[in-house]
Design brief:
- This protein has about 290 residues and is α+β, with helices and mostly antiparallel strands.
- The protein folds into two domains: about 110 residues, Immunoglobulin-like (Sandwich), CATH 2.60.40; about 130 residues, Immunoglobulin-like (Sandwich).
- Helix content is about 15%, strand content about 40%.
- The protein contains four helices and 17 strands.
- The strands form four sheets. It has a five-stranded mixed sheet with strand order 1-8-3-5-4, with no helix packed on it.
- A hairpin with a 3-residue loop joins strand 10 and strand 11.
- The protein is elongated, with a radius of gyration of 35 Å.
- The chain starts with a helix and ends with a helix.
């Protein structure tokens, strides 16, 4: 049996050995993070560990005095023109993540970048490349197009026709009959066309003889010889034409040249790929023609 003094020595040595065992290593990572500046979006997470520095490299200059951290848990090691080095002084907690934030100094729309420092069992972020993600150019252009379309739509020939201000008299107009050749479950029930200064408007009644609703989405207009006419706007009377009913569709287009003739082909395509082809659209006469 071991003497008490010997046993105490053994326990001391075992405890020291246990304390000397290295903690499981975690892989050091370098990543890129795009910040959006959307205050409603959750903050991007950065994986941290006690005593391991995290460098944030920004795509623009930052303001040194704007750096904010919980100093009891995060230490600011260095602030550069475009960089920030911090190090957790305590192990990050998943239930209480620490926040790091900084303000940009270059006058861009997006001014603030903020992150949450969280733990991870096997990885630690040591380098974060930070880029600002602004609205996609395409999205901005589309928003502008929608705005202009709405503004123009409120003053367009279609709006006047729908409101009753554009009647069948006082402006060149021409009716065209039901198109027996349109065939299929979508049929043209005839319509009327108008012609103004630089524009034409075609109003066509479409019958949905199918068993499914049909939602008009896109229209094309071309002369009988295949000359295309630029369509400016297609407006359905309703979002989708119910089965067994008919509704109007208005199509505004550029005024085609006189050489294109009088009769045109209108095709209206739906969201489901089905379309109706109206081959007997007669455009209203030009002003000079209507005076004869």
């Amino acid at each position: 049996m071991l003497q008490p003094s010997t046993l105490a020595l053994v326990l001391l040595l075992l405890g020291a050995a246990a304390r000397a065992q290295p903690t499981p290593s975690r892989a050091l990572r370098q990543r890129s993070i795009a910040v959006t500046g959307n205050a409603a979006a959750p903050l991007p997470e950065v994986r941290g560990a006690k005593g391991i520095g995290i460098t944030f490299h920004f795509d623009g200059a930052i303001r040194e005095e704007s750096v904010k951290v919980d100093e009891s848990r995060i230490r600011v090691v260095d602030v550069g023109k475009n960089s920030l080095l911090v190090a957790p002084v305590t192990e990050p907690r998943a239930d209480q993540p620490s926040e790091v934030s900084v303000m940009f100094a270059d006058g861009e729309e997006q001014e603030r970048a903020a992150f949450r420092i969280v733990p991870h069992p096997s990885e630690v972020d040591t380098w974060i490349e930070v880029t600002r993600q602004t609205a996609q150019p395409g999205a901005a252009c589309q928003a502008r197009i929608d705005e202009l379309r709405a503004r123009c739509g409120a003053q367009s020939p279609t709006a006047f026709r729908r409101s009753g201000l554009l009647g069948n008299e006082g402006i060149p107009a021409r009716r065209f009959p039901r198109d027996a050749d349109s065939g299929g479950a979508l049929v043209s029930d005839g319509g009327v066309s108008f012609r103004g200064n630089g524009w034409v408007l075609v109003e066509v009644e479409i019958i949905n003889a199918s068993g499914q609703p049909w939602a008009p989405r896109v229209a094309t207009l071309q002369s009988k010889d295949g000359t295309p006419v630029t369509v400016l706007l297609m407006t359905p009377e309703v979002e989708a034409i119910p089965p067994g009913t008919s509704r109007r569709v208005w199509v505004e287009a550029d005024n085609p040249p006189a050489s294109a003739g009088v009769f045109f082909i209108l095709e209206v395509s739906g969201a489901d790929g089905r379309s109706v082809r109206v081959g007997n659209v007669a455009l209203a006469p030009r002003t000079q023609e209507s005076k004869r």
